[in-house]
Amino acid sequence: MARREPLNRERVLDAALELADKEGLEGLTMRRLAKALGVEAMSLYNHVSNKADILDGVAERVFEQVERPDPALPWQEQVRAVALSMYRVFSRHPAVPLALVTDQSNPTSVRALEPLDALVGALFQAGFDDLGAWRALTAVNSLVFGSLVLSTGGFTGDPGVHAGEQGVSAYVREMDPARLPHFSRLLRSTREGVDPPADFEQALDMLLHGLAAEAPN
């Protein structure tokens, strides 16, 4: 009989991330996690405190995958690189940004905050003061995580996965163009599909253009 690998925090977090990827936040329970690991649920508490601790650890792992920018690059390129990497990394784990924006996860470790530290450093290079850097950081985070949540909430992405193709088509058919002419026109133009990553890059470039106009340097 093969010897079972000892349970540790790393194994627990690996399994938790995999479970969240498959079943979402609601599917990530201590009981299901224990079953996936082949252990009793109580044994998990030797390595994690509770579900919030698991979510913080999982978020930290995803943040670790975000690429750090070259500090020698112009500040706009650094901000763009971090934001794009965050979007791409977190899009592979849609339950994690949802946990972050709903305050179910709030990782504060150095490893989790390093990408944001690099982003703030680029904003300081641009000449923003503390308040200006804070507001710029908020704008970038809002774009990244807002785009991620919308892309898994039925507004963008594959409607067959997120909201049901039939339901979306019915929604478009029932919309009254006379009362909502502009939104009706816009929504009908997306029936053939949308491209969330391309939309995000375009929105990011627009945001960077605005930041550059406000930057002192």
Question: How would you portray this structure in words?
Answer:
The structure is a single chain. The chain is mostly helical. It is built from 11 helices and no strands. Helix 1 (9-27) crosses helix 5 (95-101). The radius of gyration is 21 Å and the shape is flat. The model is unreliable at 154-167 (pLDDT under 50).
SSE topology:
Layout lengths: L8 H19 L2 H8 L13 H14 L10 H17 L3 H7 L8 H16 L4 H22 L7 H4 L2 H10 L6 H8 L7 H19 L3
Helix pairs in contact: 1-2, 1-3, 1-5, 3-5, 3-6, 4-6, 4-7, 4-11, 6-7, 7-11
Q: What key attributes describe this structure?
A:
about 220 residues, mainly alpha, about 65% helix
Along the chain, the helix and strand elements come as HHHHHHHHHHH
Give the beta-strand count.
0
The share of residues in helices is 55-70%
Mean pLDDT across residues: 88
Beta content: under 5%
Low-pLDDT runs of 5+ residues are 154-167
User: How far apart are the termini?
Assistant: 65 Å
Largest sheet: none
Count of discrete alpha- or pi-helical segments spanning 4 or more residues: 11
Computed over alpha carbons, the radius of gyration is: 21 Å
